[in-house]
Structures are given as structure tokens and as C-alpha cells.
């Protein structure tokens, strides 16, 4: 974590934010960089010259001493958004912190800073535990073993296109994305027709687990030597599984688009209503033939 506190010496809350950061540094493994709003231009130049690449590759925690939020503003100049931002005036409420006419933090102020740091670390740890617990609810070794037994085939010129001849529990949207009803949710992938159009697939950008999507949202992108194809979700719901094998072997979509080349699993939230917008395999097969003919006219 990169901790970026406000150390504005003209405000006691600025000093307090720096003290909180130091306490976090002592309690947790992290790195600390100070951004002083009283010399904002100099610090902004320093960040531009030395820190952006380092910052962009790490998680960032900003601690702002006042509502102006100078630290966040400096980062925004370089299109950097912190992962978490703390506004100190909101945190110190009810803790007895009183700036008064003091110019420096006293012993009680430093005690409050240490208390805030401990509370933040406890909060971070609780969030981490909750996230890990939620992740364990998903089966880690999900295997997609569809029950296709027959395929519809269509040949045109030197190409041959296939569609699983499965009547129940298998659909397509109008963007060449298939949906297979599975006990874990709805498994999705792209059609044989589309993978052949893309040619050699070289990368797949996967969605994050627990991401909420709406029908026709982009849930993944498939990059080939020819173009990039956006995978539009056939249904609304939550991503509960992703095919990690595609990160190392994106060509699985070319090799086996309806099985090993699956992309993700979605736990549906409005499935029955959205079925009206999908085609079954036979309907898609007919539409696919028309598209192939149009492609070669």
C-alpha cells in the first residue's frame, strides 16, 4: 500500500493526517509518501516525475486533512484515483480532538492518531476476511462438462460452422454469445461462427468475480490477430465463475468454443423475463446461415 497523507503544517488536521500515516506505517508493511498542499505545485511536479508508474501499480490510501482534499486533487491531475480515501474530519468526530490555537500536535493528539490508525487497520482486516470468506463460497475447481451429443453443421465455401443441437437449457443472444443452463448458473461463451471470424485469438480480458452485470453489458473482451470482440452478456446477474484457463490459453476458444472455451458463469437475477430476448439453438442456426451468406455476397 502507498499511503499518501496531507501534511499541511498550517492546519493541525494536516499534521494529524501525517501522524496517522506514520502510525499505519509502524503497524503495517507499507510505503509512505508525503504530499504537502502548501507547496502543491512543487509536489505535483515531483509526483509527475517520480511516482505515477509506481503509484499506478500499487494500491493507494490517501488521508486528507480537510474537505479540500488536496491529496486527491493532486493525484487527479495525473489521472490517478486512490483505492481508498479517508477524510480525517469525518474520522475524528467523537474522539476529543480539538485543534484550538495549537500549532503542533500534543501528546493527546498523537494518542488519537494512533487510535485512528489501529481502527483503520482493524477495518481493513475485517474487510479482507469478509472478502476471502465470500470467495470461498465459490467452488474453486469448477469444470464445465456440457451434455452436447449432436451438432448442427453448415458448410460454406471452405468453412464449416457448428452449433450444438441442444433444445433445452441452451440459448444464444443476437451478438453470437451462447448461454448454457448449469447447476452453478448460466455458463456463457462465444459461437463457433464468431471465433472463426475472429481467427487466431491471442488474449481474453476476463470479468471480476462478484461483478454485477445487466443484460447486454460487456462482460469480457476477446482479442484476436484481426480485431477485438466485446462479449455482451445474454442475461443479468452476478459473475460467480471465470475460466482462468483462458488467461494462459486463449486459443481454447478457437479449439473448443462450446466447451473448454467457456468464458464465465453468471448467477441470473431476471432470467425468465430475459429469456424472451434469446434464441434457441435452431433459431440461431438459421440466423447464422443468413449471416454467413451475407458475409460472402
Give structural notes.
By secondary structure, this protein is of the alpha+beta class. It has helices at residues 12-27, 40-50, 52-56, 70-76, 88-91, 107-135, 192-198, 245-248, 252-255, 271-274, 281-295; strands at residues 2-5, 31-32, 60-64, 84-87, 151-156, 159-164, 170-172, 177-182, 185-190, 201-205, 212-213, 218-224, 228-232, 237-242, 264-268, 279-280. The chain folds into two domains: 2-135; 151-295, OB fold (Dihydrolipoamide Acetyltransferase, E2P) (Beta Barrel). The protein has eleven helices and 16 strands. A seven-stranded antiparallel beta sheet has the order 11-14-15-9-8-7-16. Strands 2-1-3-4 form a four-stranded parallel beta sheet, sandwiched between helices. Helix 1 links the parallel strand 1 and strand 2. Helix 1 crosses helix 6 (107-135). The chain is elongated. The N and C termini lie far apart (57 Å).
Please tag this protein with its features:
single chain, 297 residues, alpha+beta, OB fold (Dihydrolipoamide Acetyltransferase, E2P), 2 domains, 7-stranded antiparallel sheet, 4-stranded parallel sheet, 11 helices, 16 strands, 25% strand, elongated
Helix- and strand-based class?
alpha+beta
The coarse silhouette is elongated
Largest sheet: 7 strands, antiparallel
The CATH class of the largest domain is Mainly Beta
Let me know the average pLDDT: 84
CATH architecture of the largest domain: Beta Barrel
Amino acid at each position: 500500500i502507498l499511503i499518501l497523507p496531507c501534511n499541511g503544517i498550517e492546519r493541525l488536521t494536516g499534521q494529524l493526517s501525517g501522524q496517522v500515516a506514520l502510525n499505519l506505517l509502524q503497524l503495517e508493511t507499507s510505503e509512505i509518501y508525503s504530499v504537502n498542499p502548501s507547496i502543491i505545485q512543487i509536489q505535483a511536479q515531483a509526483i509527475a516525475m517520480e511516482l505515477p508508474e509506481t503509484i499506478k501499480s500499487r494500491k493507494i490510501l490517501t488521508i486528507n486533512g480537510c474537505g479540500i482534499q488536496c491529496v486527491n486533487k493532486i493525484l487527479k491531475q495525473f489521472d490517478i484515483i486512490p483505492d481508498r480515501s479517508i477524510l480525517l474530519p469525518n474520522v475524528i468526530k467523537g474522539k476529543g480532538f480539538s485543534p484550538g490555537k495549537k500549532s503542533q500536535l500534543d501528546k493527546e493528539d498523537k494518542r488519537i492518531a494512533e487510535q485512528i490508525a489501529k481502527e483503520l487497520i482493524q477495518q481493513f482486516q475485517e474487510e479482507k476476511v469478509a472478502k476471502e470468506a465470500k470467495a470461498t463460497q465459490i467452488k474453486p475447481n469448477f469444470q464445465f462438462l456440457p451434455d452436447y451429443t449432436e451438432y448442427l453443421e453448415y458448410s460454406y465455401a471452405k468453412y464449416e460452422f457448428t452449433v450444438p443441437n441442444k433444445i433445452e437449457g441452451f440459448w444464444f443472444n443476437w451478438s453470437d454469445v451462447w448461454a448454457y443452463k448449469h447447476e452453478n448458473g448460466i455458463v456463457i461463451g462465444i459461437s463457433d461462427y464468431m471465433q472463426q471470424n475472429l481467427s487466431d485469438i491471442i488474449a481474453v480480458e476476463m470479468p471480476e468475480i462478484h461483478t454485477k452485470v445487466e443484460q447486454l453489458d460487456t462482460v469480457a473482451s476477446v482479442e484476436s490477430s484481426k480485431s477485438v470482440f466485446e462479449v455482451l452478456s445474454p442475461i443479468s446477474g452476478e459473475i460467480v465463475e471465470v475460466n482462468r484457463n483462458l488467461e494462459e490459453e486463449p486459443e481454447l476458444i478457437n479449439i473448443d468454443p462450446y466447451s473448454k472455451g467457456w468464458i464465465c458463469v453468471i448467477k441470473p437475477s431476471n432470467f425468465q423475463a430475459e429469456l424472451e430476448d434469446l434464441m434457441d439453438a435452431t433459431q440461431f442456426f438459421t440466423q447464422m446461415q443468413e449471416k454467413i451468406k451475407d458475409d460472402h455476397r
